[in-house]
Amino acid sequence: MAASVPFCHGDAPGMADCCLVPQIFNAKRYNSDLAPYPKTMRVFDNCMKLEPFDRAQPSKQPDAE
Fold first, then answer.
1. Distance (Å, rounded) from C-alpha 34 to C-alpha 39?
2. Partner of 13 for a Cys bridge, out of 17, 18, 40, 46, CB 3.0 to 4.6 A?
3. What is the pTM of this model?
């Protein structure tokens, strides 16, 4: 991940981003320290600004508890 691009491999989200986002949600669920991964978190934050990623987050699913 280069610092100048908003997603894993460029200016648009791709398969890598689709795989990364759920892993970050799982890491947050288990209170993992993500501070050592600023580039990864930047990509995650950029993904979450997009409506499809936002709508797909676990807390917004019909069976969320």
1. 10
2. 17
3. 0.89
Report how far residue 65's alpha carbon sits from residue 59's, in angstroms, rounded to the nearest whole number: 8
DSSP 59: G
Residue that is written with structure tokens 């019909």 in the block: 62
- Structure confidence at residue 48 (pLDDT): 97
- d(Cα 32, Cα 64) in Å, to the nearest integer? 21
Cβ atoms of 41 and 7 closer than 8 Å: no
Kindly report, residue by residue over 12-35, the tens digit of the pLDDT.
999 999 999 999 999 999 999 999
62 forms beta bridges with: none
Strand partners, 7: 10
Quote the CA–CA distance of 24 and 32 in Å, as a whole number. 9
